[in-house]
Design brief:
Two copies of one chain form a homodimer. Chain A is mainly α. Chain A has two domains: about 1-50, Arc Repressor Mutant, subunit A, CATH 1.10.10; about 55-190, Tetracycline Repressor, domain 2 (Orthogonal Bundle). Helices cover about 70% and strands about 0% of the residues of chain A. Chain A is built from nine helices and no strands. Chain A is elongated and about 60 Å long. Chain A starts with 8 loop residues before the first helix and ends with a helix. Chains A and B meet through helix 7 and helix 9 of A and helix 7 and helix 9 of B. The first copy, chain A, binds a DNA duplex through loops.
Chain lengths: ~200, ~200
DNA sequence: AGATTATCTGAACGCGCGTTCAATACAATC
DNA sequence: GATTGTATTGAACGCGCGTTCAGATAATCT
């Protein structure tokens, strides 16, 4: 027996990526075997290699796609009117986007070390791009006298770390909904960089 | 050939833990083999089992010891005069302690998922203890009207995430020394919860 | 209907894994 | 200098790993 009825690469490919993302996020890249991924997809291990040259590349493509989507999604957010509005937009965007893709976020922050040097550099570069987006907002605000941040680079890293931490405790259906979380974090960020 | 001259359990035990902490932090728990640890210690793999019943317990004991030391170290910090002084002490303590033990911090935040449920619960409980220390400071400050934090639990998690993030970018001998980093973060935290 | 192509199976490859244990070498004690 | 106890070796256990590939099946094309 080989191919099952109705199986196609347009289905299997995305399914492999979704399953891999989920399992990598839950158990860690090194702890998940190609056979486990294949089993969850409903396919033999060898079939995975129709869709990825090797395990590390599978991880890299997940991370790369996530970072690309993150940057594209932020760039699609309407530019607010001035640094304050743009900062608020950034805070709310980052929380919303990260909660929507908790698994991919987890991966991007935890499994970078499983990439070879070249792949690592690519992801690291995209991350720096994203951080620079925020840093620019902060710097603009400082210039206009709206913000007081003694070190805009450190401030942007601090803010991103704080916002990303939401994914470690937020649970759907819990005490707070997403908008309430956004309000709380925006309040803290706004004050943290206030002039 | 068996034991080498001068080898004793008082030396090998701590060395195993130090090597394991370092390798786990660098490559991840699942990606490091007992043979790699043994090789770095200068011993055969079997000898590790004189010091730990299995690999997971080795990880658990590293995490447990780290959390115990974290709580003990914070409790040894002189209680400041009022919530503002205590918050400043917390911020500077957390940064200093985490930078001193970057490997253990990394482990504690990334390899929890490799523990069984009981071991996981123990570490999780200690972490919650630590978070509660900060939350109490915030709550006291809110009561006294010094702080404005709409949700002290979320605020404490946000602050800890922000502070812990220092370990991901700080490099010894870089542009900023530890005190300068402490100043920047204290400035942000102070304002973030300001009334 | 027959040939071709895309998709997948199932078995195999060599290797390293966590862990166990009898044998052994050294240190301490008598 | 013999005995005892501790620290360690080195080989072995069964198992699962990532990856490859010839063969089988289903869909598509002519």
């Amino acid at each position: 027996m080989a191919r099952k009825t109705g199986s196609h690469s347009e289905i299997t490919g995305p399914r492999i990526r979704a399953v891999a993302r989920s399992l990598f996020a839950r158990y860690g890249f090194a702890a998940v075997s190609m056979r486990q991924i294949a089993a969850e997809v409903g396919v033999q291990a060898g079939a995975l290699y129709l869709y990825t040259p090797d395990k590390e590349t599978l991880l890299f493509e997940l991370l790369k796609a996530h970072m690309d989507e993150l940057l594209a999604a932020w760039d699609a957010v309407p530019a607010g009117d001035g640094p304050l509005a743009r900062l608020e937009a950034f805070v709310r965007f980052h929380i919303r986007f990260n909660l929507d893709r908790a698994e991919a976020v987890f991966l991007s922050y935890m499994e970078l070390r499983n990439l070879g040097p070249e792949n690592f550099a690519v992801i690291e570069g995209l991350r720096r791009d994203y951080e620079t987006r925020l840093e620019t907002i902060l710097r603009d605000g400082v210039v206009e006298g709206l913000f007081a941040a003694p070190d805009s680079k450190v401030a942007s890293l601090a803010i991103i770390a704080m916002l990303t931490g939401v994914t470690t405790w937020y649970r759907e259906g819990g005490r707070l909904d997403r908008d309430a979380v956004g309000d709380i974090y925006w309040d803290m960020v706004r004050k943290a960089v206030a002039a």
